[in-house]
Amino acid sequence: MIERLTQSRIFKSIIRSGLPDTPLKKSMVMFNNFVLHIFPVKIKRHGIKFSFTYCMGGISFLLFVILTITGVLLMFLYAPTVERAYHDMKFLSTGVYNGQILRNLHRWAAHAMIVTVFLHMIRVFYTRSYRPPREFNWVVGVILFVLTLALSYTGYLLPWDQLAYWGITVGTTIAGYTPLIGDEVRFFMLGADEVGQPALLRFYVMHCIVVPLLAAGFMAIHFWRIRKDGGISDPL
Amino acid sequence: MAEETTEKKEGVFEKAPDKTYGLMELVEGTSPLVEKKPEDLVDTWPHYIVPMTLCILAVTLVLLIFSWLFNAPLEEMANPLITPNPGKAPWYFTGIQELIHYRWAPPAVMGVIIPVIIVIWLFLIPYIDIKEKRTVLVILFILFVFGAVLLIVIGSLFRGENWGFVVPWG
User: Fold this and answer.
1) Are A44 and A232 in contact (CB under 8 A)?
2) Partner of A99 for a Cys bridge, out of A49, A58, A92, B99, CB 3.0 to 4.6 A?
3) Given pLDDT bands bounded at 50, 70 and 90, which one contains residue B3?
């Protein structure tokens, strides 16, 4: 039955290489699959040991995917206006089917992603995986760490509760300490002198469009360079 | 090493007497590397794909259970007239807030210049990792990691009214 199914023309037109039961097909399944083709056909044995990477980079990306999916769903249920934002939050927990768990997933995944990205950076430091030719990929990684913080921080204001309002007030006050251009930096972030409607709109656009696109772009470079630099780094 | 992984099949091909060339031998092996130590490679499918899939499922499940047990915080609606004491930044920035609190230097230095210098230093790590000075780099990195964690823990959990010291279980 399974054999008849996998031999059918429709199945073969979708999954080109069939069940990967021979070395050739094992290669072809990696090579021909859109999602899997970012991985090499063969991989260094030490690289798939859990104790070498602790999966922190992969988990960070998984969390980014989860955050994108839950984030898009939340966008259907949220309007970035001072009048509506907080009530949309309340409505998520009272009037939307599974709305509370949707918001929980997004919130906890965001916190977790900061932790995993940080741990990933520590892992790469201790395996000295930034050795040549991988120096620049470390730089891309630090950019991604900063962008992760930016993503989380811009999302922090959106619930428009006291936690959000004063968290952003404290954060932008610190940014306002920047020498020479402090006031300009703060105004650039808030679009006004205080946290209000312009700030909410700015944080929303940055959170949903600008920073995720930037992060996705740098992630593409990050993963692409891993392959171009010969796959996962060698052990020390 | 190469002898172990490749197997010569000799005498398979008879040399044609009327030709000056011929197929001499077949070497069976899995690595196309020449004059290099063979790398210890395994098939990505299934040796990597299967554990990766399990890891994806496990992380997703843990996140779902956590989200089912614990609700994301939502306080009263934002009110510019009611200032909480203390007002706290998101937890990943409470370390900077804690740093500013010590007043060892103006807030511009503690809150902006020091964090920016740390990020620039992080960018430069691959280029300043010189064998003779590696110990210094490792010590600085340990200080950075534990310093950041310590400041964040203090700033998030052990700071109450007017940024005074409190214990979270008190």
Assistant:
1) yes
2) A92
3) very low
- A57 contact partners, CB below 8 Å, separation of at least 6: A120, A123
A134 touches chain B (CB under 8 A): yes
Q: Give the residue from B37, B60, B67 with the most A CB atoms within 10 Å of its CB, the best one to mutate.
A: B67
A52 touches chain B (CB under 8 A): no
A161–chain B Cβ distance below 8 A for any pair: yes
Contact A107 B72 (CB under 8 A): yes
* Beta carbons of A53 and A122 less than 8 angstroms apart: no
ipTM: 0.92
Nearest in space to A117 (alpha carbons), one of A218, A22, A227, A197: A218
A:63-122 residues touching chain B, CB 8 A cutoff: 63, 66, 82, 86, 89-90, 93, 100-101, 103-109, 111-112, 114, 121-122
Residue B26's DSSP bridge partners are: B9
Percent share of chain B, pLDDT over 70: 82
Query: A96-143: per-residue pLDDT in tens?
Result: 999 999 999 999 999 999 999 999 999 999 999 999 999 999 999 999
- Rounded to whole angstroms, the Cα distance separating A24 from A94 reads 54
- By residue count, chain B amounts to 170
For residue B47, give the H/E element and its range.
helix B44-47
The beta-carbon neighbor of A41 closest among B44, B52, B74 is: B44
Say yes or no for a CB contact (<8 Å) between B75 and A108: no
pLDDT in the model for residue A26:
87
List chain A domain ranges: 1-42, 45-228
Please write the tens of the pLDDT for every residue from B36-76: 666 789 999 889 999 999 999 999 999 999 999 999 999 99
Cross-chain CB nearest to B92 (options A135, A149, A170) = A149
Q: Report the CATH fold assignment for A45-228.
A: Cytochrome Bc1 Complex; Chain C (1.20.810)
Higher pLDDT, residue B22 or B147: B147
